[in-house]
Amino acid sequence: PALRRLSHYLLADYQKGTRPVRDWRTTTNVAIDLMVYAILSVDEKNQVLTTYIWYRQHWTDEFLRWDPARFDNLTQISLPAESIWVPDILINEFVDVGRSPRVPYVYISHHGEVQNLKPIQVMTACSLDIYNFPFDVQNCSLTFTSWLHHIHDINLSLWRQPELVKFDRSVFMNQGEWELLYVLSHFQEFSVKSSDSYAEMKFYVVIRRRPLFYTVSLLLPSIFLMVMDIVGFYLPPNSGERVSFKITLLLGYSVFLIIVSDTLPATAVGTPLIGVYFVVCMALLVISLTETIVIVCLVHKQDLQPHVPDWVKHLLLERATVLLCIRDRKKFSQSRTQSSDTSRQVENNDSTAKLNHYGGEDPRECEAAGGARPAPPAFAGPAEGPPPMDGVLREVASIRRLLEKRDEFRDVAREWLHVGYVLDVLLFRAYLVAVLAYSVTLGTLWSVWRDA
């Protein structure tokens, strides 16, 4: 009965359409408070932040006061929010009405203090900066202001101290993708076209993304593929397997980018640095494949190619080998020298055999016979070999020329192989330095942003 009598007493002659002050010059001070409960979603493409907050309002209604002694010592009562005056405080960044639960009552004390507590699902516009993804920190504002009443009618203030609001994570659910760093509060007055001033209270919700999932699913596979690309340089440059290996890596990286394309945030105003990282990695793989193709074409010189130019020998076989600390340069030179010596020895043996054939006997046979060599007949004619032997000599001479040409081709191919080997080592080390410098730069930037 006391609750019913008090409710009838308060609402009997109450005018909810009028600001509840006895003197119109009195300003209604509304104290507000905010606690972040959860970060529901961050839509980078549409620049929308969806949060779930606990929102509280506190103001004094001069027409909702009573003497507790008259109503069985009641000091508080809950009344329907539709039955009393409620300030028209809205959030400026609202872009859509969320699915917020409806709380139909407010609490009123016997001094006229009204408390309006309600949870709100807030969908607000926010300028999201995704350049540092997945190590990004977002700062989104929630601006509470009266849409109609200027500061002389309704003024805003904080319910609690700013320090208590800043580090209050007592109700925040911190098991999602985002973690709450702090909530800053700021009061200011603003006016539109020199009209009356309005009071507004800004809350800056600062959140940070947890990067572990993206590091494992995006960065590590890319790093592994780049490491395998570097290891592929240790395949022999004169082997065709290196080209197929590099093409397989490039194809695998393309499939990887197609898979992760839906994971990367997309906006119309910028591209995250990790997207640039993937593009540069793809470019490095293409450069690596191009270098491999050039080296394979160089070491697989076809026949009838000229010798290596002297300036190439001077730059690559002398200067570059010393600069790159290649120790097997002399081995290639010795192999070429031995090949030339062998060719000359075969030529001398063939000439000796030809002379012995036309002379009719081997000098070693003469030495074995004790040097007693019969004189040729006085009436002997010119020494002529049998006709079948001439054909054999011609065939042997053509085989000898073929072998000499083959040895020359081998020398040329060996020279180009040596040039390709030195050039491959040079390009590999330059490629390795570029990859390491790129990795260190990105790692340093991401570490600085992570700890900032």
From TrEMBL:
It is found in: Postsynaptic cell membrane. It is a multi-pass membrane protein. Residues 218-441 form the Neurotransmitter-gated ion-channel transmembrane domain. GO terms for molecular function: extracellular ligand-gated monoatomic ion channel activity; transmembrane signaling receptor activity. It catalyses: Ca(2+)(in) = Ca(2+)(out); Na(+)(in) = Na(+)(out); K(+)(in) = K(+)(out); Mg(2+)(in) = Mg(2+)(out). Residues 374-386 have a biased composition (Pro residues). Residues 335-386 are annotated as: Disordered. The keyword rRNA-binding does not apply. Keywords: Cell membrane, Disulfide bond, Glycoprotein, Ion channel, Ion transport, Ligand-gated ion channel, Membrane, Postsynaptic cell membrane, Receptor, Signal, Synapse, Transmembrane, Transmembrane helix, Transport. Pfam families: Neur_chan_LBD, Neur_chan_memb. GO terms for cellular component: postsynaptic membrane. InterPro entries: 5HT3_rcpt, 5HT3_rcpt_A, LGIC_TM_5-HT3, Neur_chan_lig-bd, Neur_chan_lig-bd_sf, Neur_channel, Neuro-gated_channel_TM_sf, Neuro_actylchol_rec. Residues 335-345 have a biased composition (Low complexity). Forms serotonin (5-hydroxytryptamine/5-HT3)-activated cation-selective channel complexes, which when activated cause fast, depolarizing responses in neurons. This is 5-hydroxytryptamine receptor 3A. The gene is Htr3a_0.
